[in-house]
Amino acid sequence: MQEGLRLLIQLVLEFAPVVAELVQKRSQDSLALNKYEPIEAIPELIKALNPSNKKSNSIEDFEQERIFQQQLVADNYQTRLRIAAQERETALQLPEVNKIIDSWPLRLYPSQILDHANYGRTPLKIFIAPPQVHFDQFDDKRDERISQIELMLAEGLRDFLNKHYSLHSQVRPTELLAGAWDSKRFHSESSMKALFGMLKTEPILILESENDGDYLNFRIAYWGLGQGNYYYKTIARLPYREILQESAKRRALEWKQIRDELLALGEDLEEINQIGKENIVNLAILEKVEKWNEKGIDISKLSLQYQVNRQDFEKLCQVLITYHCLVAGWIADAYHLVNCGVPPLLPELLPSLLEDTFDLQSLQVIASGYKQVYQALENERCYWIPELALQLAQSLSHLSDAYGGKLRSWANEQLNYSVNTWLQLRQISLQDSTNPLQAMQSAVSVKDEEYVKKLREYFVAVGDSQSLADVEEILNCVANLKHQVTLQHIVLSHTLTGHSEKVTSVVISPDSESLVSGCADKTIKVWNLKTGKLIRTLTEDLGEISSVAISSDGHFLAVGSCQHPRSNVKVWNLNSRKLLHTLLGHQKPVNCLTISPDGQILASGSNKIKIWNLHKGDACGGLCQRICTLWHSSAVNAAAISPDGTILASGSSDNKIRLWNPRTGDPLRTLNGHSGGVKSVIISPDGEILFSGSTDKTIKIWHLATGKVLHNLTEHSEEVRSLAISPDGEILFSGSADKTIKIWHLRTGELLQTITEHSEGINSITISPDGQFLASASSDKTIKIWQIN
Fold first, then answer.
1. pLDDT in tens, 138-173
2. Which stretch of 204-208, 352-356, 460-464 has the lowest confidence by average pLDDT?
């Protein structure tokens, strides 16, 4: 087996379990990892959004979960960096520092290594402890040879790292500190313990080669961020004398061929031998060995001294360089994968590093080693596994034509692991279908397109026509989904510019004919929705308007004021334009209003919620009857009533959503999950799902009956102020302080469109009951009406 590959096999067998153990320990230590929302919640959302269709798909935006996991990894990484920074400062102040420095194995002081430059990510630092090769014929040049080996080894590893793991890379930064090892002072366990004691805050890899008779013991020492101990072990014994002698013998055989060719041309043998130098001696030994072997003489006990030269040392150096590159690449892959979620690179580099024939069994060990690390990551980063395993399968598939069917079967093993994990994440069972690729068709979404295309590349590479046909069917499903969501596009119909301050709230009448807007300029305006023409303006002692609402029968218009002490709610008859009620009692600004779908109940929110019966009181303008008052600890920013009128949801600045019985005032449940104040809440048309927007820039989707978070939408860059859902429950609209409106396809979980026409933040959005129009109100003093096709 080729020496370089044998080393890599040994490394994988030894080090993969270590990486797996590190991942598991990280998972146990990291409280952040316990914040994952259970994947079991997804089927509940599917059922809730489409109860009539047993095979329906709902929000399956697994890419968002992957991003969420990436953020958790990034947060965990930053936490470890802060801890490392504190430990770094402590290390520099230890009283025994001077004593340690007296026997320090490096030419660099700890302060030089601990001093961080402005790297995006903490790089893996690599030190080389080069071998002190001692060979009989070169006693007089011993120091020179050691220096040459160190320089050539550093140059070879430097070239490899600069190409693939550059210090300046934003993906896999790796720093080679060549020449730092002071090999004449001390080594082995004592040096590693001293280094770890001072540098444990830094991710370190030390590649050490130590002379042991005719062998070099090749060892690695490694520790990563936040690691409580270091890994140090001999992973290979390199027969360096044998390598040198084999190189000398090969040169002698090459010389023999040249000598014979020159003799055939009539050249003088004595003159030829003068050119041959040590090749003459080595060839003579080879010819004797051949003769003795023919006579059955056991030459294994003979000490045959071949003469070696610089070329042989260069060959040894090349073997050492290959060893160091393989180990540095594998461990750099493990470090960047575990800490930063970067997929491995070494599988793609193996063909160029190992140019000779591959040992297929050894390649299987390498693949299994990567898989072992991936399996250790399953609990922490399950959404990355399909792509990581597929990448490894693709790397192996590139070699399958040259190295036969066994390699292809091992590549297929990684491919199956990738696809099966993909299906498990989406809770797709293979009971109804024995073909995993066919099972994928029922769960694929538009965001899976890149993954499916990589599957296609794989099957093209291995020549699997049947699987390729299945993948084409999956891509057809993706194309159909893209076509479906493309149908839900939106175009600007009118821009209304009658207000003189920020427009705070808009609502569309039940007949989808009129639009009512409330503004900080203390006016209410009524517009023709389809033409955009102003119908009338209401200005009767309103104060600054915070919200407007229309009853389901179109008779009542409720207006909330946020201008204290005028904080109140006024109710008009929308048809007669007559003021019916002025509802008093709020001591703080009224921030939100909502009317129940049956038109019976009005809820108004300030720091508390008041529930009113719209149909009780004097029809000529008397007070509505107050049903109850609900208490919040902070300002209530949003409220919504379920279609059956049994649940009132209120969102507050205390980051909480509370559920109430609006008729009795009884509290039902408190929903915790947002890290910022809740600015908007709406309930789906079927009454099963709650949507909330927050100052934490996210939209959360809740199962109303259980209070579970079903999904998180995270595309907005500022607080989410307003939400609206289409009458069929398929499309979600969100308006944000980031000046955008985003449109989401709930069944596929896709972000369909981002609208950027407003020049200031979006304060309110509403959709017409017929689903044909969307209106948006902004701090840019305009209202925009959008037609949905």
1. 444 555 555 677 888 899 999 999 999 998 888 889
2. 352-356
Q: Please measure the distance between the N-terminal and C-terminal CA atoms of the chain and give it in whole angstroms.
A: 65
- With a CB cutoff of 8 Å and minimum separation 6, the contacts of 222 are 15, 204, 205, 206, 230, 231, 232, 331
660 touches 641 (CB < 8 A): no
Q: Are 75 and 32 in contact (CB under 8 A)?
A: yes
Which token pair is 395?
């790397």
Residue 635 pLDDT exceeds 50: yes
Phi first, then psi, for residue 739 (nearest 5°) are 80, 10
The Cβ-side half-sphere exposure at 580, using a 13 Å CA radius, reads 20
Rounded to whole angstroms, the Cα distance separating 324 from 758 reads 57
Buried b vs exposed e over 481-512: b needs ≥16 C-beta within 10 Å? beebbeebebeebbebebbeebbbbbbbbbeb
Integer Cα distance of 631 and 665 in angstroms: 10
When mean pLDDT is compared across 447-451, 620-624, 697-701, 749-753, the lowest value belongs to 620-624
pLDDT in tens, 38-49: 333 334 433 443
Q: What are the E-state strand segments in 403-520?
A: 490-496, 503-508, 514-519
Extract the tokens encoding 432: 């109804």
Length of the chain, in residues: 789
Mean pLDDT of the region 757-776: 95
d(CA 335, CA 88): 20
The angle formed by the CA atoms of residues 644, 648 and 649, to the nearest 5 degrees, is: 125
In DSSP terms, which residues pair with 206 in a beta bridge? 127, 221
DSSP state of 287: H
CA gap 615, 422 in Å, rounded? 55
Question: Tokens for 598?
Answer: 């049956």
Check the CA dihedral 469-475-477-479 and report its sign.
negative
Under DSSP, the state recorded for 675 is: S
User: Which pLDDT score, from 0 to 100, does residue 762 have?
Assistant: 97
Contact in structure between 763 and 775 (CB atoms under 8 Å): no
Cα-based torsion angle of the residue sequence 359, 363, 369, 373 in order, rounded to the nearest 10 degrees: 160
181, β-bridge pairs:
106
Helix H, strand E, coil C: the string for 591-628 is: CEEEECCCCCEEEEECCEEEEEECCCCCCCCCCCEEEE
- Other beta carbons within 10 angstroms of residue 668's beta carbon come to 14
What is the gyration radius of the CA atoms in the chain, in angstroms? Answer: 36
Cβ proximity of 546 and 561 under 8 Å:
yes
pLDDT at 585: 81
Contact (Cβ atoms closer than 8 angstroms) between residue 237 and residue 218: yes
pTM score? 0.53
Structure tokens at 709: 């978070």
- Cα–Cα–Cα angle for 371, 372, 373, nearest 5°? 90
Q: Give 659-706 pLDDT, tens digit per residue.
A: 999 988 899 999 999 999 999 999 999 999 999 999 999 999 998 988
Distance CA 700, CA 693 (A): 7
Least Cα distance to 610 among 640, 645, 644, 585 occurs for: 585
**CA-to-CA distance for 98 and 264, rounded, in angstroms?**
71
Select from 450, 449, 440, 438 the least CA-distant residue to 478: 449
Report helix, strand or coil for 353: helix
Task: Annotate 56-95 with b (16+ C-beta within 10 A) or e (fewer).
Answer: ebbbbbbbbbbebbeebbeebbeebbeebeeebeebeeee
**Element spanning 453, H or E:** helix 449-462
Give the model's pLDDT for residue 528.
95
Residue 100 · residue 194 · CB < 8 Å:
yes
494, β-bridge pairs: 785
Angstrom distance (rounded) from CA 731 to CA 717: 20
- Torsions phi, psi for 628 (to 5 deg): -165, 170
